[in-house]
Write a structure and sequence with these properties.
mainly alpha
Length: about 70
């Protein structure tokens, strides 16, 4: 479970940095920045839905920790 979440986070961070790179190099000439950010959003939503599904299936449990 941890490996899947870590890989998803690495994909999200990688997509974010690739969008930054495209933003700096393309100067708005292409849609690569938008595409990289779209991939990041898709990965973030997929990770969120996966965590909800894993909790529903009982693969992960909440700790009951409440920040005050």
């Amino acid at each position: 479970m941890r490996i899947i979440v870590i890989l998803a986070f690495l994909g999200i961070i990688g997509s974010l940095f690739s969008a930054l790179y495209y933003l700096m190099t393309d100067k708005g000439g292409t849609n690569r920045t938008v595409n990289a950010l779209t991939v990041r959003i898709g990965l973030s939503i997929a990770l969120f839905l996966f965590v909800l599904f894993a909790h529903h299936m009982g693969w992960i449990q909440s700790t009951g920790f409440v920040a005050r």
